Amino acid sequence: HPPYPPGPPGLPIVGNMFMMDQLTHRGLAKLAKEYGGIFHLKLGLLHQVTISNPDYARQVLQVQDNIFSNRPASIAIKYLTYNRADMAFAHYGPFWRQMRKLCVIKLFSRKRAESWDSVRDEVMNTVTNVEGKSGTAVNFGELVFKLTNNIIYRAAFGSDLLSQEGQTEFVSILQEFSKLFGAFNLADFFPWLTWVDPQGLNRRLAKARRSLDVFIDKIIDDHLEKRRSNGGVSVDAEDSDMVDELLAFYGEGGGTRSDGDELQAAISLTRDNIKAIIMDVMFGGTETVASAIEWAMAEMMKRPEELKRVQDELVQVVGLDRRVEESDLEKLTYLKCALKETLRLHPPIPLLLHETSEPTNVGGYFVPARTRVVINSWAINRDKTAWEDADVFNPSRFLKSGAPDFKGSNFEFIPFGSGRRSCPGMQLGLYALELSMAHLLHCFSWELPDGMTPKDLDMEDMFGLTAPRAVRLVAVPTPRLQCH
Ligand code: HEM
Known about the structure:
Structural class: alpha+beta
Order of helices and strands: HEEHHHHHEHHHHHHHHHEEEEHHEE
Binding site for heme: 423
Mean pLDDT: 90
Keywords: Heme, Iron, Membrane, Metal-binding, Monooxygenase, Oxidoreductase, Signal, Transmembrane, Transmembrane helix
Radius of gyration: 23 Å
Bound molecules: protoporphyrin IX containing FE
Protein name: Ferulate 5-hydroxylase
Number of strands: 9
GO molecular function, one term: heme binding
Oligomer: single chain
């Protein structure tokens, strides 16, 4: 076969495992400068190929999408997703296709997103909360994390369950999951170590999943009970949450609601599927949107002239005598550009993880079957050949005709990925992002605290499942509306 892509030399047996601390979006971008837009690492027994420019991204996400659409999964991920019973980690194939169709039609469409009361209500609750803190320093990062957590929690489980204790317990389960997803497990690279469990991770995994089982089983049982008392059918579509929607597909040989729905006749979900999909939604929809809101605000506070331009547009389109309504969003062109520019510079998921289903060639290099393929969206969105002043926050670049959009056909701009595995929650995510930012910028003026100037604002990020700000943004709101 042709040669492997270039890459740093490795050691016998462990390969490049001594470089594990460089496998962040920034570290991999640095390596790409040395080895090129496609490079190869050997991590124990595992091949990893990293893609860092738009041309190679097009190769793997469009031209050879069918070969590059599997997902790599660590031991932790397999265990915590009930052995890939979800959509995000299912391999590409008929099961994934059905799950994806179900989620896109029933859970994530823009129409469905607009019908979740949770988005509107929680944004308004946040505005009221900020009004109460007018003139004092607000931890903006914590505020928006709580906001998106509430939105998704309510959309998933319904408002009856939004008790403080329930939510706190669920957040701590999610945090443990997050740690386990990110934990370095030797057995991922040397599978024969799985049964030895030298780091004691298997025990932690079992414990985390037990806590999740107890928590979500109770929620599923309560929903089933509600259905039973409602004559075996789902509650009103208007009141239904994600668990209700998924329970319509629960059971052997098709769903339990017989309204002639073709999708329902074709798909049957187990309890594990329902639990795993809910975890996809919680992980996919919470930190991503929260980090985008926080980065958008930080970038605008760093460049007050951009903040002013967005707020001037809000005055022009909405006026200062009322709050933003959903119908205004379409007219807020500059706000949308600022959000696109934020997602370009700070894609909430900086590294897209794919896996090859068979051996192939890219750019004349050999990529074996089951290679872990890392598409460095963070590096690609800042590619100097595709973007002028690539590291500068400049929303007006998106005003030009022919500027890239979110559809994923411009491979220099892939914050939601592209192709078969691109983000199915994009409409829901964008809706929550636009509505939150429009309200927070329209209702309040924002200043940095304690005489801090924009130059002092730290713009470092952190590497994890997402890439949020390393230091939480703190800002001082004052009301702006005459109707306040
Ligand atoms: C600003 C918000 C969001 C961003 C930037 C974002 C970004 C992404 C990206 C980059 C991927 C991986 C694409 C790939 O591997 O090629 C992805 C996948 C996914 N996202 Fe999102 N996402 C957002 C919001 C959401 C929301 C709100 C949900 C659900 C409620 C969601 C659910 C998912 C799921 C389930 C997948 C896996 C899809 C699959 O493997 O087939 N995302 N997202």
